[in-house]
Amino acid sequence: MSATIAVTGAGGRVGGAICAHLESRFDVRGVARDHDEEREAFARRAVIDAHVVVNAAGVAHVRDDTPSTLARLEEGNVDLPAAVARAALDVGASMIHISSVKASTDDDRSIYADSKRRGDDRLIREFGRKYELADRCLIIVRPLALLIPTFEAGRLSRLTALPRWPRPLTPPIPLPALTATKFLAVIETLVDDALARRTSGVSVREFTRGDRANLREVRDAVSAAQRGTSS
C-alpha cells in the first residue's frame, strides 16, 4: 500500500510542483485552504490519513508593512505551520516544512524574513522534543530562490529576461537559486527518510553553494520550457 503524503499549499507553484513530482511514487493529497477556513480546522483536515505532511503553505512577496500585511504574515508563516505541526503529530505523521533561506540568519531585516525566522523558531521550540518522543521527524527545509517556471497565456512568466545565448557561450556561473529538479529531488529524499524513520525530532536542511543552479542550467530550463509551450 502506497504511503499517503499530504501537501498543504497545493494551489501554489511550490506546493503544486511538489504534488506533481511525488505522485508517481506516493498517494499524494494536495490540500488548499478554503476561503475563511479556520486555521485549526484546515490543519486537521490537511493531515487526515497522512503518513508525512509537507507544508508548502505560507505568505510571500509582500510589498508593505501595513497592519493587515503583518497579520497575514503572522498567520501564514508563524501560526499556520504550528497548527499543521500540532495536527500532524496528533495523527502520528512526520512533517516537512518549507521555510526559506532568509530564516537562516539575521542579515535580512525584512518583515517576510522575520516572519520565517519566528515561524521556524516556534516549530523548533514547541514541537522539536515532542516529535522526538513520538519517534517522528520535523524537517525544516530552507531553500534559496526556487526556479520553478510558471506560465501565463502560454508564455513563461519568469526567467524570460535571461539572455538567450547559445549554450557553449553561457557560462556556468552559480546563482543564488535552485532549479526545480534539485529542490524536488531533495524533498523526495526527505519524504523517504521520514517514512523510514531515519531521524526523529527536529532537523534543518540548508542548501549550500554546491546546490545552486548555474546560469547554463537556467538557460537550458528556459529553453526546454519554451519548447514545451510551443509544441
List keywords for this structure.
Rossmann fold, 231 residues, two-stranded parallel sheet, 6-stranded parallel β-sheet, alpha/beta, 6 helices, globular
Descriptive overview:
- With 231 residues, the chain is α/β, with parallel strands linked by helices.
- It has one domain (4-144, 178-210): Rossmann fold (3-Layer(aba) Sandwich), CATH 3.40.50.
- Helices cover 42% and strands 18% of the residues.
- It contains six helices and ten strands; from the N terminus they run βαβαβαβαβββββαβα.
- The protein has helices at residues 13-22, 39-46, 67-90, 111-133, 180-196, 215-230; strands at 4-8, 27-31, 52-55, 94-98, 137-142, 145-147, 151-152, 155-156, 177-179, 201-206.
- Strands 2-1-3-4-5-10 form a six-stranded parallel β-sheet, sandwiched between helices. Strands 6-9 form a two-stranded parallel ribbon. Strands 7-8 form a two-stranded antiparallel ribbon.
- A hairpin with a 2-residue loop joins strand 7 (151-152) and strand 8.
- Helix 1 packs across helix 5 (180-196) and helix 2 (39-46) packs parallel to helix 3 (67-90).
- The longest helix has 24 residues, at 67-90.
